[in-house]
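Sequence design from tokenized structure. All designs in this work follow the same two-part layout: the structure record, then the generated sequence. An example of the structure record is given first.
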């Protein structure tokens, strides 16, 4: 028996009595129903379950005359109650997190470092899913860890992994995803009470703004990271932040502050980095690569020498970085009329970006190739 038929029988009404009540309810709504015979046939079809009551008007009329809800009359399915939370599941998650110690955190960090090495050699495209799974694992442990010391260890690993994921997402052309990764990285760095990771993820997030063309806010964000980090981070991080500030000033076409920041980066760079910041690879040759990038944008004649030094240290080790240096070299060489050599570096960069999947670098290569064909030599943003 359908719920609609059962409702009428509970009331003890004949179809004629139901007809009268339906018409009275319809009249109150200023609605006109079909004749008694036609309505009686339709009610029989509904009550026998031959067709459902699809009309919102009739659903409302039946609910009103019977004093029932749409669920009670079978017009809509009853909502499925949410599954009762499993205490066993929560207990298992808490147990897994409670087993985390310094050794587990070290293994998770080693996994991040391994992904970083793969990213350097092959680019982000092939390892993004691996990175997402890795981050989800660390996040789950961090959410269910109770002891503050354990949470700080996990938060530090999470901040590093998220910052790397942010850069990967930006490189393959997903800036919104990149922004969210950097937001997670900053939050985790705060929980880890790690000033270096906080400064690093904040300054790297500025590159999302830079890619969106907002050079003003990008520069302000790096400047903020530098101010917050002053006196709280190693000299290596201060050097990296100064170089990032130089790049922002260069993008703003502000050469004097750019050169000043590059000089600061050189003065702050330690002679022998101690390896305490595994996410930073910055030595004098790497800084030369950074200087060359800025000089190429500024049209400085020293760009070629700096970039040549930088190319030597990244070739065969950092595919994305090598592609970037070759694009910069092609630009600088083109300015000096070395078209043939510029095209050679651009071809090599094209091969490398095919391997890494870097959308940012593909855009630069396409722009520069167009400039070579047109005989111009502006820096490809």
């Amino acid at each position: 028996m359908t719920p609609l038929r059962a409702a009428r029988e509970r009331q003890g009404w004949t179809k004629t009595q139901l007809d009268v009540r339906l018409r009275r309810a319809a009249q109150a709504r200023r609605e006109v129903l079909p004749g008694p015979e036609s309505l009686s046939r339709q009610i029989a079809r509904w009550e026998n379950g031959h067709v459902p009551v699809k009309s919102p008007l009739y659903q409302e009329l039946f609910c009103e005359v019977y004093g029932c809800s749409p669920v009670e009359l079978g017009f809509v399915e009853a909502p499925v109650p949410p599954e009762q939370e499993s205490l066993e599941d929560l207990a298992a998650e808490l147990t897994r997190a409670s087993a985390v110690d310094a050794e587990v955190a070290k293994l998770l960090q080693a996994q991040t470092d391994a992904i970083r090495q793969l990213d350097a050699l092959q680019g982000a495209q092939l390892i993004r899913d691996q990175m997402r799974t890795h981050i989800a694992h660390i996040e789950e442990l961090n959410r269910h860890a109770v002891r503050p010391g354990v949470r700080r260890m996990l938060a530090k690993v999470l901040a590093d992994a998220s910052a790397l994921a942010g850069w990967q997402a930006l490189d393959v052309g997903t800036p919104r995803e990149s922004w969210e990764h950097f937001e997670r990285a900053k939050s985790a760095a705060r929980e880890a009470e790690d000033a270096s990771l906080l400064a690093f993820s904040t300054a790297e997030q500025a590159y999302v703004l830079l890619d969106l063309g907002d050079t003003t806010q990008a520069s302000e964000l790096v400047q903020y990271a530098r101010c917050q980090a002053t006196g709280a981070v190693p000299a290596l991080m201060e050097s990296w932040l100064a170089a990032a500030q130089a790049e922002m000033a260069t993008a703003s076409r502000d050469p004097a502050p750019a050169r000043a920041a590059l000089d600061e980066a050189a003065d702050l760079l330690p002679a022998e980095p101690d390896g305490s910041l595994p996410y930073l690879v910055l030595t004098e040759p790497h800084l030369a690569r950074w200087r060359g990038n800025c000089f190429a944008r500024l049209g400085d004649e020293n760009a070629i020498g700096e970039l040549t030094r930088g190319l030597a240290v990244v070739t065969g080790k950092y595919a994305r970085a090598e592609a970037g240096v070759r694009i910069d070299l092609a630009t600088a060489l083109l300015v000096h009329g070395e078209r043939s050599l510029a095209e050679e570096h651009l071809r090599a960069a094209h091969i490398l970006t095919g391997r890494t999947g870097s959308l940012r670098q593909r855009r630069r290569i396409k722009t520069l190739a167009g400039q070579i064909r047109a005989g111009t030599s502006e820096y490809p943003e």
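The chain has 18 helices and no strands. We note this feature because it recurs in several other targets discussed in the main text.
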